[in-house]
Amino acid sequence: MKDNKVFVITGATGVGKTTIARYLQENYRMPRVITHTTRRPREREVNGIAYYFETDDSFENNHYLERVTYAGAKYGSSYEGLDRAWQKSQYITIVLDTAGAITYAQELGSRAIIIFVTVTSPSVLVDRVQVRGDDPHAVKQRVASPEFLRDMKLPQNLKGRAYELVNDDWSKTKTRLDLLVTDIMHGRRLPKKQLE
């Protein structure tokens, strides 16, 4: 169990966190940690795949590393969710904001591999988010939010701890990810935190 690792993908909206997590899931068979929510399932969302859909009471039965209330619903990632994913594989993934990534680093120590994803030019992020079909007004609100601005830079608590990955060019990003995953799986720790 102590050799189990969770690859925590963090950074601002639009940097490619979900794409990176999906790449790790598809190419390295790393299951995604399923998180919990009290919000109602959307059409086609399946319990235990999209989220663990909880009632207010059942939500409180889990032991959370981090949790938040957003738009009246509770969301959280739990030790139970981690354990279920680790039963499938020694290496798993989760996408978190930087506040969640700090918590994972503090709570899980060396079992949490933190990858902070960024881009060279922040204006690229607005374009990326709009391309994926998000409402332009909502995009403007999101990129002006304190959470977006917070997630744009590597938090002090993760300096020297997180691997920084500049995702300007997807083919270069995949090469850097492959090197990192191979080193972690072979018990090596990359000496340099900037993945170049």
Written overview of the protein:
With 196 residues, the protein is α/β, with parallel strands linked by helices. The chain has two domains: 138 residues, 3-Layer(aba) Sandwich (Rossmann fold); 56 residues, Guanylate Kinase phosphate binding domain (2-Layer Sandwich), CATH 3.30.63. Strands 6-1-7-8-9 form a five-stranded parallel sheet, sandwiched between helices. Strands 3-2-5-4 form a four-stranded mixed sheet. It is globular. The two termini are 31 Å apart.
Summarize the structure.
The chain contains eight helices and nine strands. It is of the alpha/beta class and 196 residues long.
Give keywords.
196 residues; alpha/beta; Rossmann fold; Guanylate Kinase phosphate binding domain; 2 domains; 5-stranded parallel beta sheet; 4-stranded mixed beta sheet; 9 strands; 39% helix
Strand order, main sheet: write it out: 6-1-7-8-9
How much of the residues is beta strand, in percent? 15-25%
Q: Indicate the overall shape.
A: globular
Gyration radius, in Å? 17 Å
- Tally of domains: 2
Secondary-structure-derived class: alpha/beta
- For the record, the CATH architecture of the largest domain stands as 3-Layer(aba) Sandwich
Q: Let me know the CATH homologous superfamily of the largest domain.
A: P-loop containing nucleotide triphosphate hydrolases
| Contiguous uncertain segments of 5+ residues | none
Question: What percentage of residues falls in helices of 4 or more residues?
Answer: 25-40%
Mean pLDDT figure: 87
The tally of strands reads 9
Number of continuous helical runs: 8
Give a short account of the largest sheet. 5 strands, parallel
The CATH topology annotation of the largest domain reads as: Rossmann fold
Order of helices and strands: EHEEHEEHEHEHHHEHE
CATH class of the largest domain: Alpha Beta
